[in-house]
Amino acid sequence: MSGEARIAWDPQARRFAPLHQEEAGIMSVAMAGALVESLPACDPVGLRRILTARTAAEAEPFRRAAEQVLLQHCGDSVRLRGLIEFSNRCVCDCHYCGIRRSNRRVGRYTLSLADIVETARWCATKGYGSVVLQAGERRDGRFVAFVEQAVCAIKAATRTPHQPEGLGITLCVGEQTADTYARWFHAGAHRYLLRMESFSPALFGRLHPPAQTHAARLACLRMLKEIGYQVGTGVMIGLPGQTPDDLVEDLLAFRDLGVDMLGMGPYIPHVDAPLEGQGEIASDAVRLQMALNMITAARLLMPTLNIAATTALQALAGDGREQGLRHGANVIMPQVTPPRVRKLYTLYDGKPCLDDNPEQCASCVEGRIRSVGRRVLWHAWGDSRHYAERMRVGPAQEDLR
Ligand code: 5AD
Ligand code: FES
User: Fold this and answer.
1) Which H or E run contains 82?
2) Which residues contact 169 (CB under 8 A, 6 or more apart)?
């Protein structure tokens, strides 16, 4: 018997079901096509099936479908965001993270305003249409004012004939008050990334100290959306104790929240973070495949989102980000943090590109994008189509989607 067609779309039940539970195996290309057709009703069984593919061969029909959906809805261009990790000072103590507050073994730094603006200007000259300002979390008044100043200064310094509005700015600096988010939005930041890490309250609780709550994080995501940001979130994949059902819950939460962007990557242990060694994790190869499967499933479920091929993918395989693009991602965040401080921003062990200068990263990244048959979208913000659509239709109809 061939390995084809062991799970099928049941139009009456409106769900995917294994034809025979015990032999649910490789899904045929035709079946993957049916999955795509059935997206609006896509249910947990179909998603779970995608997420549990353990080899590239098993995942291939889904990957191909996701790539087609991406090309059809978002085109073949890849959007660049220069990633500026401007400070590793952090008040949080996430159990998985290498720059958590209680890690005393890492030297702390904050780039000067001049360094940040200079780096952003370099991005504008290169044609990267946007930057991401990422840092550890702080909520003190000095920090809030510093970020506001940095956003204003970048906007003023990066207006070019190609981009008269200046670079697009994404912030990734954690949980803040609504006032702070609004202040930064009015200064000119128009996207915000705040990863939920896991939408499962139980798993979130195991990953964070009691002071950091699932409810507070979720409330921040809602605030950001209300203020008018393009909102991105994401989760780590392959965490100890995480199940495929947790990941299905994450996917459905992305959709229900109506986020515009996703940044997801494999969990990678850090030697000075206490989650290391707490519970079994799958091998690097399997965690990488799981992360690629999440990108695929997210693209199939939400065709118009911007999805990043993250650096963590590249930490597990040299071509991890290219694989991310092939599985449905359309954003890459080239590292532009000044090399002298890069080693201090180690969220996890084995972070790539630590020794390359931004110039090397730039030529490398374009080649990598071309190698998978895609092209770079130069000098553009590259907003998510999902955001453009929700701004046009307004919130009432958007909720119907
Ligand atoms: N492995 C993978 N990703 C990590 N992050 C932090 N620590 C790790 C780790 N050990 C990710 C989190 C966070 C982002 C800035 O980096 O998802 O939101
Ligand atoms: Fe929370 Fe670094 S301390 S992600």
Assistant:
1) strand 77-87
2) 130, 131, 133, 151, 154, 155, 188, 189, 190, 191
pTM: 0.89
Atom number, ligand 1, closest to the C-alpha of residue 275: 10
Largest Cα–Cα distance in the chain?
67
DSSP 319: T
Nearest to 24 by CA among 48, 40, 41: 48
Gap from CA of 137 to ligand 2 centroid (Å): 7
Tokens describing residue 56: 């590239």
Distance 126 CA to ligand 1 centre (A): 28
Domain ranges in the chain?
A: 7-71, 78-398
> Which atom of ligand 2 is least distant from the CA of 347?
2
Q: Which residues of 182-193 are buried (b: 16+ CB within 10 A; e: fewer)?
A: bbbbebbbbbbb
* Ligand 2 mutation pick, 85, 88, 89, 92, max ligand atoms within 8 A of CB: 92
Does the pLDDT of residue 223 top 80, yes or no? yes
Tokens coding 361:
């990263």
| Helices 178-187 and 141-157: angle between axes, nearest 10 degrees | 20
pLDDT digits (tens, 9 = 90+) for 314-367: 999 999 999 999 999 999 999 999 999 998 998 988 888 777 777 777 778 899
359-374 confidence digits (pLDDT tens): 777 778 899 999 999 9
CA 356 – ligand 2 centroid, Å: 24
Q: Map residue 273 onto helix, strand or coil.
A: coil
Fold of 78-398: TIM Barrel (3.20.20)
Atom of ligand 1 lying closest to residue 193 CA: 18
Does residue 144 line the site of ligand 1, with CB under 6 A?
Answer: no
- In this structure, which residue's CA is closest to atom 3 in ligand 2? 100
Q: How far apart are CA 11 and CA 139, in angstroms?
A: 51
Residue at 48: amino acid letter: R
Q: How far apart are CA 98 and CA 2, in angstroms?
A: 47
Amino acid symbol at 52: T
Hey, which bits of 168-291 come out as E strands?
A: 168-172, 191-193, 230-233, 236-237, 261-266
Question: 98 forms bridges with which residues in the sheet?
Answer: none
